Amino acid sequence: MHIKVNNYLNRDIFKKIKTLIFNNLFSKNKKKVFFFKKNLQIYKNVLPLQPQ
C-alpha cells in the first residue's frame, strides 16, 4: 500500500518535470529557465527523502 502511494507520487513528480522540460524547450525566457532549474533541484532533493 505504502509503495503504491509512493509510486503514484513519483509518477506525478516526473510528469511535472516532463511538463517543465517541454515548456522550456519552447521558451526563450531566461527567468523561466532559471525557475525550471531551481524546481528540478528541489525535485532531486525531495525524491530521495520519500519513504520506500
Describe the protein's architecture and organization:
The chain is mainly α and about 50 residues long. It has one domain (about 1-50). Helix content is about 80%, strand content about 0%. It contains two helices and no strands.
Strand content: under 5%
Q: What is the chain-wise order of helices and strands?
A: HH
Strand count, sense and barrel status of the largest sheet are:
none
Helix content: over 70%
DSSP summary, beta strand count: 0
| Tertiary shape | elongated
Q: How many distinct folded domains?
A: 1
Question: Pairing-aware structural class of the strands and helices?
Answer: mainly alpha
Number of helices: 2
Ends: how far apart?
11 Å
The stretches of 5 or more residues where confidence is low (pLDDT under 50) are: none
The average pLDDT value, as a whole number, equals: 69
Q: Tell me the Rg in angstroms.
A: 13 Å
InterPro entries: Dilute_dom
Protein name: Dilute domain-containing protein
Domain Dilute: 1-52
Structure characteristics:
mainly alpha; 0% strand; 52 residues
Write the layout of secondary structure elements.
Elements: H1 2-25, H2 30-46
Helix pairs in contact: 1-2
In short:
79% of the residues lie in helices and 0% in strands.
